């Protein structure tokens, strides 16, 4: 479901030192997958720490439409009674995935090898995003697919009657493409193989193994090769969702740029396929300690202690991009407060997210007095150690753009504004109270 249609302008201003603990929400990628795999298993899956952002709520509603029984037991505590692999029933309404690329692409994969028909839609942002990257391989499983011009939503999928397994090299580094294919492969007899040139986030692989699927991953001359054996009986599992490193990035950034700050961010996922931002920040000279490393819900987690830091610009290599793909907007804000240029290479995928994130960040940073250079697949932010601020950024229905510019204002000389804070609820519904609790002046 799309969030409120009324734009909500917001402003943030230079704040005193940020202090305290930031309990960021559950990981969005893992939350989507827990609901989908719960719906595809036999028995009751109990999920704790689920992100209750709009993107994930839309996936829960979609799973109900395909026949799963889903209940909210308490805050972040959800129960899913699944229908088993191949057990989805035909929905009697259009599946509206709102703003969520992960939701729509994974769910299209999950139903494409079951002989039912479903139509998918999304908000204005999702309806602009490319879907052929997923529907092309799904057609090769035997599904019949009709899309709007350019392979966009709305899309109708007639699931394969007699699915055949697929061997597929992904053309771009994308965990959503990989996951859609693996989920489709669940109901195809035999082995489905996905080959990635760069390894992307591996939550689907970890969780499929946890639910009892036979799945292997190895690095060969071809790349990172994942092999799934189809038609397993997935067994319902408890899932404890770790806190989202992509959401943690916002309070972490705020503490780094606001003088005198020191915050603690407990229980954040340290999955090595998601740690590119943290590696980059350490390169820039950030004072971040990772305390109490441990395993929770099959994922490595740690408590972060973050202090205000003097930062220096760095070059982020293209090979790191997929390990921090959602963190470039907030990195470009942090880079504006650093001394010198920060160069981000190999980031063309940012142009097909909820907005064209290179364009949205470049225009918003310029409006706040920061010099930016861009090419199709790179962005350079010229940091001056201070940010004038005073500008308004257009957020284009993009939660990460909205949060990034609110964080910028906390350290800038003049307040910074955004045209619409509504999209924040897609991934971080408690962003404003959490930041205010740390001492941030925003709203
Ligand atoms: O699989 C996932 O959960 C995600 C994969 C990434 O997208 P791509 O697969 O398009 O890179 C990321 O940007 C998105 O926020 C979440
Ligand atoms: C790109 C993102 O999400 P999605 O692709 O699921 O819309 C994101 O959360 O930054």
TrEMBL record:
Chain positions recorded as 3-phosphoshikimate binding sites: 28-29, 33, 174, 176, 326, 353
Role, per record: Catalyzes the transfer of the enolpyruvyl moiety of phosphoenolpyruvate (PEP) to the 5-hydroxyl of shikimate-3-phosphate (S3P) to produce enolpyruvyl shikimate-3-phosphate and inorganic phosphate.
Pathway assigned to this chain's UniProt record: Metabolic intermediate biosynthesis; chorismate biosynthesis; chorismate from D-erythrose 4-phosphate and phosphoenolpyruvate: step 6/7
Family label: Belongs to the EPSP synthase family.
Name of the top EC class for this enzyme: transferase
Alphabetically ordered keywords of this record: Amino-acid biosynthesis, Aromatic amino acid biosynthesis, Cytoplasm, Transferase
Domain of life: Bacteria
Annotated positions binding phosphoenolpyruvate: 28, 101, 129, 176, 357, 400
Catalytic activity: 3-phosphoshikimate + phosphoenolpyruvate = 5-O-(1-carboxyvinyl)-3-phosphoshikimate + phosphate
Span of domain Enolpyruvate transferase: 15-433
Protein name: 3-phosphoshikimate 1-carboxyvinyltransferase
EC number(s) on file: 2.5.1.19
Short name of one Pfam family: EPSP_synthase
Xref: SUPFAM superfamilies: EPT/RTPC-like (SSF55205)
Region called Disordered, residue ranges: 1-26
Positions of the catalytic residues: 326
Major localisation: cytoplasm
PROSITE patterns per UniProt: EPSP_SYNTHASE_1, EPSP_SYNTHASE_2
InterPro entries: Enolpyruvate_Tfrase_dom, Enolpyruvate_Tfrase_sf, EPSP_synthase, EPSP_synthase_CS, RNA3'P_cycl/enolpyr_Trfase_a/b
Classification via Gene3D superfamilies: Enolpyruvate transferase domain
Location in the cell: Cytoplasm
Native source species: Paracoccus stylophorae
A GO molecular function held by the record: 3-phosphoshikimate 1-carboxyvinyltransferase activity
Self-association and partners: Monomer.
């Amino acid at each position: 479901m799309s969030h409120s249609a009324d734009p909500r302008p917001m402003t943030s201003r230079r704040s005193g030192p940020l202090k305290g603990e930031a309990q960021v929400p559950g990981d969005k990628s893992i939350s989507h997958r827990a609901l989908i795999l719960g719906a595809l298993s036999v028995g009751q899956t109990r999920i704790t720490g689920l992100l209750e952002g709009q993107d994930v709520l839309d996936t829960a509603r979609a799973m109900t439409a395909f026949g799963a029984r889903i209940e909210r037991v308490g805050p972040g505590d959800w129960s899913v009674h699944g229908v088993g692999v191949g057990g989805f029933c035909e929905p009697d309404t259009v599946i509206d995935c709102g703003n969520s690329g992960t939701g729509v692409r994974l769910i299209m994969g999950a139903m494409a090898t079951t002989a039912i028909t479903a139509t998918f839609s999304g908000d204005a942002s999702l309806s602009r995003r490319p879907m052929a990257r997923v529907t092309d391989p799904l057609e090769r499983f035997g599904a019949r697919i009709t899309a709007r011009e350019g392979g966009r939503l709305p899309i109708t999928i007639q699931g394969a009657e007699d699915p055949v397994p697929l061997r597929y090299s992904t053309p771009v580094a994308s965990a959503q493409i990989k996951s859609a294919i693996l989920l489709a492969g669940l109901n195809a007899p035999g082995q489905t193989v996905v080959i990635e040139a760069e390894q992307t986030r591996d939550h689907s692989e970890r969780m499929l193994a946890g639910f009892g699927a036979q799945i292997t991953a190895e690095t060969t001359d071809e790349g990172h090769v994942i092999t799934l054996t189809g038609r397993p009986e997935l067994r319902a599992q408890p899932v404890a969702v770790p806190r989202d490193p992509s959401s943690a990035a916002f309070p972490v950034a705020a503490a780094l740029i606001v003088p005198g700050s020191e915050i603690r961010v407990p229980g954040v996922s340290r999955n090595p396929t998601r740690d590119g931002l943290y590696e980059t920040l350490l390169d820039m000279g950030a004072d971040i300690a990772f305390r109490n490393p441990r395993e929770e819900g099959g994922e490595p987690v740690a408590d972060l202690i973050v202090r205000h830091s003097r930062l220096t610009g760095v070059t982020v290599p293209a090979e790191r991009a997929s390990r921090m793909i959602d963190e470039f907007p907030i990195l470009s804000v942090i880079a504006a407060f650093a001394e010198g240029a920060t160069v981000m290479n190999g980031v063309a995928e940012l142009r097909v997210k909820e907005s064209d994130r290179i364009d949205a960040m470049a225009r918003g940073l310029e409006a706040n007095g920061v010099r930016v250079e861009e090419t199709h697949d790179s962005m350079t932010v010229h940091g001056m150690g201070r940010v004038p601020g005073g500008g308004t950024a257009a957020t284009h229905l993009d939660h990460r753009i909205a949060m990034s510019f609110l964080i910028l204002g906390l350290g800038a000389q003049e307040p910074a504004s955004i045209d619409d804070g509504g999209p924040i609820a897609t991934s971080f519904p408690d962003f404003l109270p959490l930041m205010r609790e740390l001492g941030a002046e925003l709203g």
